[in-house]
């Protein structure tokens, strides 16, 4: 039963993976009769989905963090050094003294190193029960980014271009 003013103190954060090819593996091409093998109707495909890009981001009612490209596996130490220190702490400071971090229960977010850092940095964290539903509003941002990339024609040619479009 929070009021808008209370929600304005929360920094919602999450990671999301974006794939070069759609998840169902189908490519839809609309063409006119007789265009079957026209050059513009032929599209080369990446085998096995072509790869993916993982990004991390944070939003509040007043600000957003830069979109951070997560390369490889995100460990607790990497989460602390690459995301919490340079991105989350400054964002929380900009929100104000009552700012609250909302992240999920992903293992890197709950590592001993991260918990120690959170306590030392005096970060207020919204605690969520295990297996709670993902009601984070940043999920809507990920959905919109995905739709924008899918609407782009031609589709991204490689992972670098996909990351550039997401940013």
Automatic annotation (TrEMBL):
> GO molecular function of the protein, one example?
nucleic acid binding
Record InterPro entries: RNaseH_sf, Tc1-like_DDE_dom, Transposase_5
Q: Known Gene3D superfamilies for this protein? A: Ribonuclease H-like superfamily/Ribonuclease H (3.30.420.10)
Tc1-like transposase DDE domain segment(s): 9-153
Domain of life of the native organism? Eukaryota
What Pfam families does this protein's entry cite? DDE_3
Q: What name does this protein carry?
A: Tc1-like transposase DDE domain-containing protein
Species for this entry: Littorina saxatilis
